[in-house]
TrEMBL record:
<feature type="disulfide bond" description="Essential for enzymatic activity">
    <location>
        <begin position="203"/>
        <end position="240"/>
    </location>
</feature>
<keyword id="KW-0540">Nuclease</keyword>
<dbReference type="GO" id="GO:0004530">
    <property type="term" value="F:deoxyribonuclease I activity"/>
</dbReference>
<keyword id="KW-0732">Signal</keyword>
<feature type="signal peptide">
    <location>
        <begin position="1"/>
        <end position="24"/>
    </location>
</feature>
<protein>
    <recommendedName>
        <fullName>Deoxyribonuclease</fullName>
    </recommendedName>
</protein>
<feature type="active site">
    <location>
        <position position="164"/>
    </location>
</feature>
<keyword id="KW-0378">Hydrolase</keyword>
<dbReference type="InterPro" id="IPR005135">
    <property type="entry name" value="Endo/exonuclease/phosphatase"/>
</dbReference>
<dbReference type="Pfam" id="PF03372">
    <property type="entry name" value="Exo_endo_phos"/>
</dbReference>
<comment type="similarity">
    <text>Belongs to the DNase I family.</text>
</comment>
<dbReference type="GO" id="GO:0005634">
    <property type="term" value="C:nucleus"/>
</dbReference>
<dbReference type="GO" id="GO:0006308">
    <property type="term" value="P:DNA catabolic process"/>
</dbReference>
<feature type="active site">
    <location>
        <position position="106"/>
    </location>
</feature>
<keyword id="KW-1015">Disulfide bond</keyword>
<feature type="domain" description="Endonuclease/exonuclease/phosphatase">
    <location>
        <begin position="29"/>
        <end position="251"/>
    </location>
</feature>
<dbReference type="InterPro" id="IPR036691">
    <property type="entry name" value="Endo/exonu/phosph_ase_sf"/>
</dbReference>
Length: 307
């Protein structure tokens, strides 16, 4: 009888507890290829973009080319309208300076969900400012770095270094990202860093000999989540790992959902033809999942979860 009562009590307690209910924070990177007013006014392009971005909690947008800033404003406005049935699920954005040599300029833009992320600080990597910076003026478009705070993830602060390299100078720029990391570590005292973007790190833009000199590759503390064998292009005739996600830091590495770093092929998922892809002029996006906290809902005071 006593055992039956004990069993009943245990079942009751279990019924009041929800253990190890997990979810994840989805981080994406997307080269939108010359995103400006023309694409913002194209309903088909915007429809695809909204479908892709609504999958993400945080997305690095690259190749924003709009001196007026109206295109990104329109995109975020439409994204919030797309998610209008969930008022707590709105998006904001933080953008870089207009970057580039001579007249050609691009911007990096991070679009993020307000209910899961806040911008703690951001930093536009400069040209020629002494030790730990871009001393040789390697970058065509200097990295834009943002430190996000996430109260629900196992890692509270995550630093993202966004970079879109110049194809003909890709290996030098990728190597210089090591110096960028060192500078950010010195400035913000955190090593939980994600380097992501269209690094042009594949096919004819890289060489085996060149890889040996890239410090991000030779240092085992950096984990390359998108391998050389993967295809981050959207067209059938190409197979190149241009886009990459590189992570550093024991906490962030242990918080990544295994196998979650993958290219998202919107052509296949949205059943688009090659002709439609050519018309849209969009590149593939990348996705990465980071574990959220495992919630324990229970009467009483349960033991804290050990990650």
């Amino acid at each position: 009888m006593t055992k039956r009562i004990l069993t009943a009590v245990l079942l009751f307690v279990v019924g009041l507890c929800v253990l190890n209910v997990t979810s994840s924070l989805k981080i994406c990177a997307f080269n939108v290829q010359s995103f400006g007013e023309s694409k913002a006014n194209n309903k088909k392009v915007m429809e695809i973009l909204l479908k892709i971005l609504s999958r993400c909690d945080l997305c690095l947008i690259q190749e924003v080319r709009d001196s007026k800033g109206a295109a990104i404003q329109a995109l975020v406005k439409d994204l919030n309208r797309y998610n209008r049935f969930d008022k707590s699920n709105s998006y904001s954005y933080v953008e870089s300076e207009r970057l580039g040599r001579k007249t050609y300029k691009e911007q990096y833009v991070y679009i993020y969900r307000n209910n899961v992320l806040t911008v703690k600080e951001h930093y536009q990597y400069p040209k020629l400012e002494g030790e730990g910076t871009n001393e040789t003026d390697v970058f065509s478009r200097e990295p834009f770095i943002v430190r996000f705070h996430s109260p629900t993830t196992l890692v509270k602060d995550i630093v993202l270094i966004g970079q879109h390299t110049c194809p003909r100078n890709a290996m030098k720029e990728i190597n210089e990202l090591y110096s960028v990391f060192k500078g950010i570590y010195k400035m913000w005292k955190t090593d939980n860093v994600i380097i992501l973007g269209d690094l042009n790190a594949g096919c004819s833009y890289v060489t085996i000999k060149g890889w040996r000199a890239v410090r991000l590759r030779s240092d085992p503390k950096f984990r390359w989540l998108i391998g050389d064998e993967q295809d981050t292009t959207v067209r059938e005739k190409t197979h190149c790992a241009y886009d990459r996600i590189i992570v550093h830091g024991r906490e962030i590495i242990s918080s990544i959902v295994p196998g979650s770093a993958q290219p998202f092929n919107f052509k296949e998922n949205f059943h688009l033809t090659e002709e439609e892809v050519d018309m849209l002029k969009l590149y593939l996006s990348l996705e990465l999942h980071v574990w959220l906290l495992e919630f324990i809902l229970c009467i009483g005071k349960p033991e804290p979860h050990q990650s």
